[in-house]
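Q: Here's a chain of 174 amino acids. Please give me its 3D structure as tokens.
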Amino acid sequence: MVLSSYAQVDSLSSQLAQVTNDAERVVLLNELAWHLRTSNPAQAMAYAQQGLKIAKQINHLPEQAVSYNRIGIIYKNRGEEKHALSCYQKALAIEKRINHPYGIARAQNQIGVIYLDTRQIEKAIPLFESSAKIFYKLEQKTAFIQANNNLARCHRIIGNHKKSTSVSLNLTKG
């Protein structure tokens, strides 16, 4: 049974109230931030920042990366691309440090979207190419398609319609 978003938030909040282990708290805080990112971005930001603070205190690098990711998403949703970019870059640095391929690809794609949105296409293209390859290798089909579509969009914007079509049709290769 899939819980509604409100039920998930209630469940996570109840768990958070009972958990004393900092590593578990960070995971719950980041999950709460994820579920509240659009419905209550201010609360989501508070949870993500609290998660980041604890993750730094206990040197939990994977959850630090997740916290930066969540904070970046909230900034992006607010239209604060500069702050979002900074958070995504911090997440990417950590993901590379811990050699987490999915996290690397996710951060590359998110950074690429910022560059795409700010018309820095030359910076976006290699990020989308790299993230698409990683997502393909990891068999993350939805994420691969998103990165590939972002790449095709870049080529359309710069007027390379042949490459855009080629990328769009190339949904079976990384």
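Q: Can you summarize the key feature?
A: The chain has a mean pLDDT of 92.
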